[in-house]
Amino acid sequence: MILLRRLLGDVLRRQRQRQGRTLREVSSSARVSLGYLSEVERGQKEASSELLSAICDALDVRMSQVMREVSDDLSLAELARSTQASDAMSAAMRPMLNSVSTTSVTGVPGERVTIKAPAEAVDVVAA
């Protein structure tokens, strides 16, 4: 499950670290306890809009910029998640694939072709 609070915390931490600032400095500027800011950065606490505004002010960064980064990270997380789901579905489908052999497909005697398809999707008709 993708947690918005975790993505937000990651973005806030990156912003703070880019500036070379400590949790103590930012918590003091934002007037929030060091422990609470730490929990927000680790995605363990939800930041209210008022708290987020105070943290952004303390970091001298626009809230819209923070939210844009969160949105970008969310898009990447969703893409990674859908890719994993697609890979899992492909793995689940592999056992359903059967080899079907024919002696002639194009009318050339002796030509052998192997077709892989889901068993229920193949109709065999004798000529």
Fold blueprint:
Blueprint: H1 4-18, H2 23-30, H3 34-41, H4 49-59, H5 63-93, E1 97-102, E2 113-118
Antiparallel strand pairs: 1-2
Helix pairs in contact: 1-5, 2-4
Bin the strand percentage.
5-15%
Task: Specify Rg, calculated over alpha carbons.
Answer: 27 Å
Total helices: the number is 5
- Approximate helicity band: 55-70%
Distance between the termini: 53 Å
N-to-C SSE series?
HHHHHEE
Give the strand order of the largest sheet, numbering strands 1, 2, ... along the chain: 1-2
What structural category characterises the helix and strand content?
A: mainly alpha
> What does the overall shape look like?
elongated
DSSP, total strands: 2
Multimerization state: single chain
Poorly predicted ranges (pLDDT <50, ≥5 residues)?
A: 99-105, 120-125
Q: Biggest sheet: strands, sense, closure?
A: 2 strands, antiparallel
Mean pLDDT: 81
Tell me briefly what this model is.
By secondary structure, the protein is mostly helical. Helix content is 57%, strand content 9%. Helix 1 (4-18) packs across helix 5 and helix 2 (23-30) packs across helix 4 (49-59).
Describe, in plain words, how this protein is organized in 3D.
The chain is mainly α. Helices cover 57% and strands 9% of the residues. It is built from five helices and two strands; from the N terminus they run αααααββ. The protein has helices at residues 4-18, 23-30, 34-41, 49-59, 63-93; strands spanning 97-102, 113-118. The protein has a two-stranded antiparallel ribbon with strand order 1-2. The longest helix has 31 residues, at 63-93. It is elongated and about 85 Å long.
